[in-house]
C-alpha cells in the first residue's frame, strides 16, 4: 500500500495515488517493487545525471505506479536504492503521462524534495539506511507507517 500525505484544504490527509491530482506535491511512504537506474552521462567521472525509475505498489490499482528520481553521480542514492525497500519521499510531484497514467517524480538536492530509505525487512527496527538530506526529520509514527507497508 502506498500511503500519501498531501495538503488538502487546510489540513493534511492520506489518499491513494489514484486520487491524486496532476502536479500535486505529496509526502509518501511506498514499497519499492522494482528499480531501474540509467546514467545520463557518457563520462562516468563527471558530475552527470542519473535517472532512477522505481515501480511502487499500491492497493488502489491493479498495476504499479512509476516514480522517477533524478540525481547526480556524486550522490549515493542510486547506490543505496534496492527492490523490497520502503521509500519515504518529501514533496514528490504527481504528473500524468499521455495515456493518463499517474506517476511520481522529484529531483534530489532541489528545494524541498528529499528521500529516506528503509530496508523493508521485518525485525530490523525500521531504521533509515539512507537520507538524501541531513535535515530530513522522521515523524514519531514512522515505524507504524513503515510496518503497514511491509
From TrEMBL:
Example GO BP: telomere maintenance
InterPro entries linked to this entry: NA-bd_OB-fold, Telomer_end-bd_POT1/Cdc13
A single GO molecular function term of this UniProt record: DNA binding
Gene Ontology cellular-component annotations: chromosome, telomeric region
Telomeric single stranded DNA binding POT1/Cdc13 domain location: 25-146
Organism domain of life: Eukaryota
A Pfam match: POT1
Name under which the protein is recorded: Telo_bind domain-containing protein
Organism name: Onchocerca flexuosa
Amino acid at each position: 500500500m502506498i500511503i500519501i500525505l498531501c495538503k488538502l484544504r487546510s489540513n493534511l490527509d492520506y489518499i491513494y495515488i489514484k486520487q491524486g491530482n496532476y502536479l500535486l506535491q505529496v509526502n509518501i511512504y511506498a514499497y519499492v517493487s522494482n528499480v531501474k537506474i540509467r546514467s545520463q552521462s557518457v563520462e562516468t567521472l563527471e558530475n552527470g545525471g542519473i535517472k532512477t525509475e522505481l515501480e511502487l505498489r499500491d492497493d488502489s490499482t491493479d498495476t504499479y505506479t512509476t516514480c522517477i528520481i533524478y540525481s547526480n553521480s556524486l550522490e549515493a542514492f542510486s547506490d543505496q536504492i534496492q527492490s523490497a525497500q520502503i521509500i519515504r519521499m518529501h514533496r514528490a510531484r504527481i504528473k500524468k503521462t499521455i495515456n493518463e497514467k499517474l506517476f511520481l517524480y522529484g529531483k534530489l538536492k532541489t528545494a524541498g524534495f528529499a528521500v529516506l530509505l528503509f530496508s523493508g525487512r521485518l525485525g530490523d527496527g525500521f531504521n533509515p539506511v539512507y537520507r538524501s538530506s541531513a535535515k530530513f526529520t522522521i515523524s514519531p509514527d514512522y515505524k507504524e507507517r513503515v510496518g503497514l507497508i511491509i
